[in-house]
């Protein structure tokens, strides 16, 4: 076979492999996207069983106050709290890299106190920098205070991954209550969540086989 023909064969093989790879990525991303947008909470009814504590997953502060997106999470948690779903809060999140002078947790605590929640009912995780750390450090607070059950509060697009992480960390039962957003650019957050979910599944696999 001439060198020209060999080159054409290799180019065709490369093109075929590239097409298969692109298709596989598209199927993977489409599957995860479907899981993300169809998540309705755990349990699926959306009504959590009464728990010891509600864990509000952190997000950005603006000028040391909850951003509009984070306020949506806090307002959803307040609704559950007032309905009797839990009697204590854990708020999670460390110091942002955006010039904030308060941790996410401290800003969240301040907001809840202004809404009438006694400060004594709010425990803070001020060190976490990711969803995994949010739930890991919140679990440590629960263990220290002998709280056995929790409702995890976040946005819908974030709920499935949060539930998967909670299961990996030994939360039992796993309960995730989610809210939709009227203020976030969801096309951006859902796309970013596909990447974050992929990273989490790789990390989870390493934990399982490590």
From TrEMBL:
Q: Which residues form the DUF218 domain?
A: 52-188
Q: Where, by residue number, does the polypeptide cross the bilayer? A: none
**Superkingdom as given in the UniProt entry:** Bacteria
> What Gene Ontology terms describe where this protein resides (cellular component)?
plasma membrane
Name of the protein: YdcF family protein
Q: Which organism is it from?
A: Cohnella faecalis
């Amino acid at each position: 076979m001439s060198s020209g023909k060999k080159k054409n064969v290799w180019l065709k093989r490369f093109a075929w492999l590239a097409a298969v790879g692109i298709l596989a990525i598209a199927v993977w991303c489409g599957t995860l996207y479907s899981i993300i947008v169809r998540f309705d909470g755990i349990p699926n009814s959306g009504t959590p069983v009464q728990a010891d504590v509600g864990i509000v997953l952190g997000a950005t502060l603006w000028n040391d106050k909850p951003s509009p997106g984070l306020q949506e999470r806090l307002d959803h948690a307040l609704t559950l709290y007032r309905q009797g779903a839990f009697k204590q809060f854990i708020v999670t999140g460390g110091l942002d890299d955006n010039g904030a002078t308060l941790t996410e947790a401290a800003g969240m605590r301040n907001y809840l106190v202004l809404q009438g929640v006694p400060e004594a009912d709010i425990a803070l995780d001020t060190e976490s920098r990711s969803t995994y750390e949010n739930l890991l450090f919140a679990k440590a607070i629960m263990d220290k205070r002998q709280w056995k059950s929790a409702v995890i509060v976040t946005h819908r697009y974030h709920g499935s991954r949060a539930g998967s992480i909670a299961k990996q960390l030994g939360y039992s039962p796993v309960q995730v209550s989610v809210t939709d957003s009227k203020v976030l650019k969801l096309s951006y957050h859902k796309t970013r969540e596909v990447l974050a979910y992929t990273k989490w599944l790789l990390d989870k696999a390493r934990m399982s086989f490590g």
